[in-house]
Design brief:
Largest sheet: 6 strands, mixed
CATH class of the largest domain: Alpha Beta
Strand content: 15-25%
Shape: globular
Number of strands: 10
CATH superfamily of the largest domain: 2-enoyl-CoA Hydratase, Chain A, domain 1
CATH topology of the largest domain: 2-enoyl-CoA Hydratase, Chain A, domain 1
Order of helices and strands: EEHEEHHEEHEEHHEHEHHHH
Number of helices: 11
Number of domains: 2
Strand order of the largest sheet: 1-2-3-5-7-10
Distance between the termini: 45 Å
Radius of gyration: 19 Å
CATH architecture of the largest domain: Alpha-Beta Complex
Length: 258
Amino acid sequence: MTQPVLVIRHDGWAEITLNREDKRNAVDRATRTAMAAAFDACRDMKAIVLTGTGASFCAGMDLKERQADVARGDDSGPQEWIAVNMMIRRHPSVFIAAVNGLALGGGSTLINVCDLAIASEKASIGCPEMGFATYPGMAGPAAQLSGITRKRAAWMILTTQRVDGATAERWGMVNECVAHDMLLPRAREVAQMVAQFDAVALAESKQALDRIPAFINDWQQAMDHGQMVNATIRGRSKAQAEGPKRFASGEKNPGQGV
C-alpha cells in the first residue's frame, strides 16, 4: 500500500512529500495522521521542504471522505486539519512550501502557514469553496493572515478564480516563482541555506515573526520584544556568543557576505 506521506532526511533539513497523486494529494485522515507523525519525527531538522507528487501540491481536504464522515455523524475532520496546520506554525523548523502545481482550499492554506514558499510557474492556487456556498474556513483566514491585501483575499474567496505562480509572487503569497524544473532544486537550495544557521535562533525568530505584529504593534514594545528574543536565544544557545568571536578573528559566519 502506498504511503500517503514520504519523508527524506538530509543534513539539517528534510523533504516531506504528499503522496496521493491519484487524489491530487487531497488530505484524508490517513494523510493527516502521517503528516503529524512526519512533523514530529523532523523536530530536529532546521528546515523542511513541503511539496506534492505529480501535478498537484495539495487539493485540500478529501471531500469524499469528509462527506462520508459527516453522514455517519463524525465532523472531526476540519479540527484535525487545523491541528496539522498549527503544527507547522508551532514547529521549530522553518517550513518551505514547494508549490509544484494545483493548490486548492486546504492546499492554499498550507502555502500560507509555511514560513517561506517557492512556486512553480505551473502552480494554480485557489479557493473553490464559494462554489459549495461555503466560506473557506481555513484558507480564507490564512490568506488574510499571510499579509496579502483584503482585495486580493476577496478575489480568491468571492470569485473562486485561481492565481498562477507569477501572480502569487506579485501578491506576496510566495517568495519566488521559478521554472517548473527548477522548483525542487531552488527549494532545496533555500533549505540548505537555512540549515546552516543555529537551530535555537531559527526557532525563536520564527515565533517572533508571528508575535509581531499579530500581538505587538507598538514600536517601542516591538523593539523591546526583539531584545527579549535575543536574550532567550543567548539563554538556550552559545551560537550568539561565538559569532562575534569568529567575526573578530576574520572568520565568516554562516550567511555573512552573501
